[in-house]
Amino acid sequence: MHIDWHGLVEVCVVSLVMVTLLVVVFSLGIVALTRSRRPRMDTVGRGGVAAPLAMATAVLCFALCAALGGYGIHLIVSHSP
Amino acid sequence: MGGVSLLLIAVIVTALAFDFTNGFHDTANSMATSIATGALAPRVAVLIAGALNLAGAFLSTTVAKTISGGIVNDSKVSLTMIFAGLLGAILWNMLTWLAGLPSSSSHALFGGLIGAVWVAAGAGAVHFGEVVEKIVLPALISPALACVVALLATYLAYVITRHAPSGPVTRAYRTGQIGSASLVALAHGTNDAQKTMGVITLALISADVLDPGAGPPWWVILSAGLAISLGTYAGGWRIIRTMGRGLTDIQSPQGFTAETTATTVILTSSHMGFPLSTTQVCAGGILGAGLGRKLAEIRWGIAGRIAVSWVLTLPAAAAVGGSSAWLAGHGTIGLVLAAGVALAAVGGMYALSRRHPVHAKNVNEVPETQQDQPDDLMA
Fold it and tell me: What is the ipTM score, two decimals?
């Protein structure tokens, strides 16, 4: 019996980092999206992000998530056991 | 050789039947949370999951070269043992489905094979070290990992979006959920459909229908893909209810984090060559998502019941597989008898399920009956 502890730790760390990254980026994307939809006065007045910038942030965040999802599909297709 | 061809046909039919149970048993893995949060209508969810399972079956380029991945000595495995092992796996899948418990279909298959090989070829043909390494250890680690990761991710998701208006947030997470759930379904098709393809292909090889080392014929790929996707489409509504409603009340951010966690853990570990159970990862992810949201209620009774079913899966499927192997070892009559008993048991369990049917229309009702569900279903 051979247990690859190093590999196991790697699986744990990679999973943790990837999920956290994905969920944080997606959540930030949602926050940016909701800000971009608020009346312009509101966001600018609060010294926050202007609507176009918020929208760009949202698009960037969701694009990153979509890219990670695409990489997932790539893994499924190329590494199916 | 009438006997051989009868056995071969029996193996192919039971392999496809197992594939079907594998499908409906695991619909919950990809779609339970999406159905619970309303991201997808129940019928649409199972349709997507079924279609992606079929696509996954055709995407999987390499079919398993061994039936068990080294858990039993494959050179000692006969057609009768495969048949008996499949019966054990099918019966355990049906029983756990009746009780609404998400147990691992792969563990049921391995358990059935271990039991059949143990009885028919002796304990020496079972590699117990491999059992610990490939089944017991992943079964301990993977749900715990998914639980911790989903807990952290859920906590972060709620903290980040706490000041954002809840309507758009819910809608956005629902959309994200559809993506992550679809990836789970696709990964499931590539992994689980090819197990059945491997079993049928190796059965054909050992019956001299195919040359050694041959790949699966097109009809094997097609029938295995269709069996798992039809099973998925049939929807294991009882298990979907347990996963989506029973364990904890899932909101859309939790559904998103649970599915994202499941996809990531499954892909990472299969990329690095670790076998694990999709079902256990998904259940661990849902539990973690429940723990990560403040004030979310976890029904620990149901969680405990699921854990018990996980512990029982291997020995229970092994017991049925072993008994079937013993029976089927007594020539064609024993074989027919084993198949008849299994068929009767499956029919009986289906009849029992009709007493309290769970279907697309009532799947999202909180399963209050699960708390006082008779324990004899668990035995």
Answer: 0.84
